[in-house]
Amino acid sequence: MYGLGHYSFKFDDGFTYLGYAPVESHAVVLNKDFAEPYTGNIRISGNLNLAKNFTINTQGNGVISMDTAEYLKLKAFPESGTSTPDFNVHGDVVHLPRNSATMFYVYGNLTGRLLDLPPSLKVFAIYRENTLTGNIKDLPSTVHTVVLQNNTNIEPIVFSDIPNHVKSVELKFLPFGIIDTLANVPDSITDLNLNLDANTSLITGDISDIPNITNLQISGPNAVTGNVADFNRMLRAFYISGSNEITGQISDIPATATYFVCEGYNTLGGDIGAISFPANSFQIKGNNAIGGNIANIPHTILYLQLWGNNTLTGNIADINRNIQQFDIRGNNTVTGDLNDFPKLPESISIGGNNTIYGDIADISGKRFIELSGNLNCRYSSAVWVNVYGFWFTPQITGLSSTEVDQLLTDLSAANWSVYKVLDLRGANAPRTAASSGAVALLQSKGVTVLTN
Fold first, then answer.
1. Which of 277, 249, 246 is nearest to 263 (CA)?
2. Residue 6's beta-bridge partner residues?
3. Residue 378 within a domain
4. How confident is the model at residue 8 (pLDDT cuts 50, 70, 90)?
5. Confidence grade of residue 220 (pLDDT, cut at 50, 70, 90)
6. Do 228 and 206 meet the contact criterion of CB atoms below 8 Å apart?
């Protein structure tokens, strides 16, 4: 807690802590460990009218519950730390300190009207099933950040109701949908994050309609269009998933982008080596036509996913050694030995007319494997620990029955999660009765096993 003066913290178990802050910029910090979960009161006294910030952290599965009526003497609304799993605040917002600037990480059941929020509020972030009422346009004129999740009573939102003093908006898992167009987003907003109901929402519009947005994330039904050349040149993050149709050359993506994920019916093109932005995630799906040599993939990219009619070339030995995910599909002609894959990525997927060879055992540390094309691989034996999914479907030369049996046996000992699919069809030989026990074990783990 930041504030000038003396403060006392008294617990029902008799523990008392006395703290002093000589100036307003100093914090009074109380650290207390409990052998068992503490369920009593913490009574704070002192110069509460001078307290400017009050932060609460719990470790583990702690729950903090408070009533807004207890805040009347405080100058600032308590904030929960990021390690607090539950910070339950209940009561009418009319009781909150009038000088509160931040309501963040708030859970529980806040009641009352948006019109009764503190008039100096700047950050308004509400999670879970609160029962506040009103229209988003009723927010105090000082609010610049809005986060709403799972709120049940606030009126359905349209973009034009968002006050023009708001700069950042995050709307997720709301009980109502939003049907609107990007052209109605206020010019003041630079950050827009939407995760909307699939049955009652639809976002339309063009990227050129939001020239001030530097952080755009849309999950759920949308038919957004536009050329990447029309992005704000200071774009930081872009995520969109739906029926969107984004076009343009990847060289036109702003050089400031650190995160770019574009799923939908997109038609992006260009040479992979022409990327000028420092994104650590570059993932695009659709009918894209990305070409170039994989040796030229920028080393800043740690998560690469390119789907479409891509024509990437090169040798897997030249892939960035720090890459975490490597997923390319299309008409690629990548070559190389499996042993040359970087050791770091847990996920590798290569589709196309590739010429890849080597021992599959050399990539046994990967959790997700999807290889197709002109494969000429073998399998000896390896220990597999954690597997999400495994697809190995060569077009011409496949594994022998002995190798298929051995691979099934080794994979049956692994921990399976997420996708739980094992596909050894394609040009691979059929399995034999020798692997029947392994298949039964895999199926008992919920794995779908596909063989010839």
1. 246
2. 20
3. yes
4. confident
5. confident
6. no
Residue 326 placed within a domain: no
Which 8-state DSSP code applies to residue 53? Answer: B
Give the whole-angstrom CA distance, residue 160 versus residue 151: 19
Structure-model confidence comparison of residues 351 and 69, the more confident one: 351
pLDDT at 79: 45
33 vs 264: which has the higher pLDDT? 264
The answer to whether residue 315 is domain-embedded is no
Range of the domain at 30: 1-52
- Positive/negative CA dihedral, 208, 209, 215, 220: negative
Q: Are 68 and 90 in contact (CB under 8 A)?
A: yes
**Backbone dihedral region for residue 56 (phi beyond 0: left; psi -120 to 50: alpha; all else: beta):** beta
| Structural domain includes residue 46 | yes
pLDDT in tens, 47-68: 666 665 555 555 555 555 555 5
C-beta atoms surrounding 414 within 10 Å:
19
Q: How far apart are CA 320 and CA 300, in angstroms?
A: 9
Distance from CA of residue 374 to its chain's centroid?
A: 35
H-helix or E-strand spanning residue 436 = helix 436-444
How far is the C-alpha of 306 from the C-alpha of 286, rounded, in Å? 9
Question: Which of 408, 407, 419, 418 is closest to 442 using CA atoms?
Answer: 408
Q: Which residue's structure tokens are 């932060």?
A: 55
Question: Residue 67's pLDDT is what?
Answer: 55
The DSSP H or E segment spanning 441 is helix 436-444
Please tell me the total count of domains within the chain. 2
Position 358 pLDDT exceeds 70: yes
Distance CA 128, CA 148 (A): 9
